[in-house]
Amino acid sequence: MPLGRACSIAVRGIDGQVVEIEADIGQGLPSVHLVGLPDTSLQESRDRVRAAVANTGEKWPDGRVILALSPATLPKVGSTYDLALAVAVLDAADIVPSAKLAGTVLLGELALDGRLRRVRGVLPAVLAARQAGRKTVIVPEEALCEAGLVAGIRVLGAPTLRATLDWLRGERELAESRGLPAHQASPVGDLRDVAGQHEARWALEVAAAGGHHLLLTGSPGIGKTMLAQRLPGVLPSLSENEALEVTAIHSVAGTLSEEQPLITTPPFVAPHHSTSVSAMVGGGSGSARPGAVSRAHRGVLFLDECAEIGAKVLEAMRTPLEEGEVRIARRDGVARFPARFQLILAANPCPCAPARDVDCICAPLARRRYLGKLSGPLIDRIDIWMQMHPMSSAGLAAAEAEDSATVRTRVTTARSAAAARWREFGWLTNSEVPGHVLRRQLPLPAESTAPVEAALRLGRISARGADRALRVAWTVCDLRGGDVPTAHDVMQALNFRQRGTQ
Predict the structure, then answer these.
(1) Does domain 191-391+403-501 fall into CATH 3.90.850.10?
(2) Family, per the entry (predicted)?
């Protein structure tokens, strides 16, 4: 009985699993049957694959063709299996030799004329193929730069099904990845563009150095958005592992650039205030897709006009903020996406948002309700609150402020100190350290923690707020090059948590 085999990859979240495709050609009326939990787009591949094979000049087998995708209990989603399906059928029909198929993974969608089209999730699929011990992976030529980011596996790019078959027969060579492409830094605004606002700039620097979440309040046009957009410019570049992790998320989301696929700078994601829960944390029908919180992984999530965002959307971010991960449950399993990001919130002080507080026409209850949409548990997870005030003409005409490169140097030094301190635990920034570890492993002198103890007794902060104040104090200490936070550092941290209420 003719039987052919080929391999592809199923991607769930940013994790991949090898899928073995078996093709059996039996007696009966000509037909094609897919088994193994295929979704609608995969069911439709029967017609795509058959037309592509015929238009490539190969003969589709006469008889009943059964295509089984294993493991059978794993849901198969998307069109990435097209190339492997076509090759498995031609292998079963003895049209192509099977010598090279044993260690090869095939990825790509087929057009009706046999062209290979790019699919989402190529990078995590190649990572999974390497982890499974496969030697070679064939991807659409358009995705060769993305797939080539993975070292330790041979990556080939094929423009068409015909080119793939010729390679299997030993009649031609395919384009091979040459490694990492040259990176060109994406242009970002410079921090020197922000006139005045020295306190807000200092708050942004502390947030960058420790990976802390930040809330900016103030009247329209005061510079909240401008300041937040310059945060990625003062953050250190991503390490190699972080860059691959972030790029894998954007590969699944389908937002990678074909020319420069590797993301080496912290991403900046700013969804509109009308965004939905699934768009924010991920989801969608069928295969779960990463949301804004995951696309901002290792970068910045900026929520402008946060008081206008729906309460359910804001509350859905509480778990990612605390755990650094999103888990999306489906009938057949759970998709996990990393979501370790810095949250920057910006809001007007009230609904009418006047240029000056004295011009506000809102009732006191309306002002309270406006920012009251930010629930207590959510606002308690914000480390730094900063209320920005209008600048005078003299402040706008003041001397040029520090640029992003100068601030980035201090931020990088502070982050290096924190990473060295928490190396044995695997944490990179002070914001990631759990409160109980902070208190037990590196307890502060009584004179340093006295301001926190007083704030707890007076009910000004919660226990979680106290832990966050200590994290910020360690960051302030790192920025000044100290060894242990002083009472002054702790007071600065507490002052950051009270500015938003003034």
Answers:
(1) no
(2) Belongs to the Mg-chelatase subunits D/I family. ComM subfamily.
